[in-house]
Automatic annotation (TrEMBL):
Annotated GO CC locations: plasma membrane
Keyword Secreted: no
This protein's name: Nitrate/nitrite ABC transporter ATP-binding protein
Main location class: membrane
Domain ABC transporter: 4-237
Subcellular location as annotated: Cell membrane
Membrane-topology descriptor: Peripheral membrane protein
PANTHER family: ALIPHATIC SULFONATES IMPORT ATP-BINDING PROTEIN SSUB (PTHR42788:SF13), TAURINE IMPORT ATP-BINDING PROTEIN-RELATED (PTHR42788)
Keywords, sorted A to Z: ATP-binding, Cell membrane, Membrane, Nucleotide-binding, Transport
Length: 276
């Protein structure tokens, strides 16, 4: 049984003439310990998809299940890392992480909660910055705090909503490497939402493309059977990397883009292949 399962999920916003169907016929299964990346267009509904799994939204049709049970709302079994960090500005690095630990593991002794907090701060290499507040940190360091806070909750599933989107290229690459390192150490089940195909291939076990919205749906999953740890420079010369990249982009530019005016869906797919 998959850890996460979405069965025929659909979600719309608005009502009447203003009703917009954002997602339709979403079917997705994620196994325990698997790292899955959903890659798609900006505005296609990737954040809506993540919010449905997080329990922040309820589907209009279908079901979202975790461990075989229907998701009714948010819970500590799902840790969420947002693009905008979502840290409490008046708390230090240590206090932001400790607050989450205290809420989830309230029955623990103060010493055990302290040690647990320190462990995850060290995991993201922020021990020296533990007494700093968010305003004193760079964007990359703030996102590290978000990662530490989510992991310290020991969730069954880690949901990451374009966590590197607001960062510069160098910081983004550094954090991608850190996430890969942490995943190898923890083997958490991870769902990464991104619009960067190369990022998905670098990090994930499987990529699932999301078609252009409205009425976006998931395309066929593509296994990323590349040896870990992955070297971003070496990947550029790897024939399998190019094959996976071509398959994802081919779907996004072809069937996932929808037909052009006066063109059927198969014709649109052939046009995308010509572009690729």
């Amino acid at each position: 049984m998959p850890l996460v399962e979405l069965c025929n999920v659909g979600k719309s916003y608005g009502g009447g003439a203003t009703r917009t169907e954002v997602l339709r016929d979403i079917h997705l299964e994620i196994e325990k310990g698997e790292f899955v990346a959903v890659v798609g267009y900006s505005g296609a509904g990737k954040t809506t998809l993540m919010s449905l799994i997080a329990g922040l939204l309820r589907p209009d049709t279908g079901e979202v299940k975790l461990n075989g049970k229907v998701v009714e709302g948010p819970g500590p079994d799902r840790g969420v890392i947002f693009q905008n960090y979502s840290l409490l500005p008046w708390l230090t690095v240590y206090e932001n992480v400790y607050l989450a630990v205290d809420q989830i593991f309230g029955s623990w002794s103060t010493e055990k909660k302290r040690e647990h907090t320190e462990r995850y701060i060290a995991m993201v290499k922020l021990t020296e910055a533990r007494e700093k507040k968010p305003a004193q940190l760079s964007g990359g360091m703030r996102q590290r705090v978000s990662v530490a806070r989510a992991l310290a909750m020991d969730p069954e599933v880690l949901l990451m909503d374009e966590p590197f989107g607001a960062l510069d290229a160098l910081t983004r690459a550094t954090l991608q490497d850190e996430i890969a390192r942490i995943w190898r150490a923890t083997r958490k089940t991870v769902l990464l939402i991104t619009n960067d195909v190369d990022e998905g291939i670098l990090l994930a076990d499987r990529i699932v493309p999301l078609s252009k919205g409205p009425r976006a749906t998931l395309g066929p999953g593509i296994t990323v059977d590349l040896e870990r740890p992955r070297d971003r420079k070496a990947l550029n010369h790897d024939p399998r990397f190019k094959e996976i990249r071509g398959a994802v982009i081919g779907y996004l530019l072809g069937p996932g883009a929808g037909p052009k005016a006066g063109e059927s869906a198969p014709d649109a797919a052939r046009s995308a292949e010509a572009v690729a």
